Please model this.
Amino acid sequence: MPKPNDKPIHEVRFGAIKAAIWRNDTVIGVRYNATFSRLYKDRENGQWKSSDSFGRDDLLVLAKVADSAHTWICEQAQEKESNPQESDPRKTVTNR
Model:
């Protein structure tokens, strides 16, 4: 889970629904995680807050945000495969 001062590597937002994508460097390579939130304005003090709870009308938008986050993560994997300098040395093919 991200630390409080960490920033996501990418964000996807449709209206009040947002996905934050986090990069995790592991011993087996880069992995990405996504967290989802709904932004709203507090009626009492007018400040913006976020929630991880979604209502009926949020669910289709949440699905679209999740789909866009998935697409972005998959594109990162494709870019890594097309850039041999960043590829995992265990996956490098050598001629013998």
Observations:
- The radius of gyration is 18 Å.
- The helical segments are 59-82.
